[in-house]
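Quick review question:
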């Protein structure tokens, strides 16, 4: 993956609670829009459920391809993945179905957007039939 300093945008949008999106000792001492810039004593800040987190990167095609291959291998191998940089770490248990969207803009300056959306895995089980 790329250096987190190459991020174009970084935005944490508050959800239902007022707690920070990452677990770090100094999270309450900084503005929420700063993102997970503080590392914990044991390593990168852990991004946890219950909050929104977003980072956007501008990469060359080769580096984006490497990332997509690694992501694809994780999708094929199991139902959990972990995205990480030196500053933050995002563990995610995903479920089915995976949504794939292809969006081609052919007018003006042509562009192709490919979006993969992974739903979170639930641990729910069906009730017993008696």
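Suggested answer, residue by residue:
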């Amino acid at each position: 993956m790329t250096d987190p300093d190459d991020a174009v945008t970084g935005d944490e949008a508050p959800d239902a609670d007022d707690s920070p999106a990452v677990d770090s000792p100094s999270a309450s001492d900084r503005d929420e829009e700063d993102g997970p810039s503080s590392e914990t004593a044991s390593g990168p800040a852990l991004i946890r459920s219950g909050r929104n987190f977003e980072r956007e990167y501008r990469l060359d095609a080769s580096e984006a391809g490497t990332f997509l291959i690694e992501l694809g291998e994780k999708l094929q191998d199991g139902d959990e993945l972990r995205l990480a940089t030196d500053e933050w770490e995002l563990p995610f248990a995903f479920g089915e179905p995976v949504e794939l969207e292809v969006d081609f803009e052919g007018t003006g300056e042509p562009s192709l957007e490919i979006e993969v959306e992974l739903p979170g895995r639930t641990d729910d089980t069906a009730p017993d039939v008696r």
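Why it works: Confidence is low (pLDDT under 50) at residues 1-34. The CA atoms of residues 28 and 60 lie 36 Å apart.
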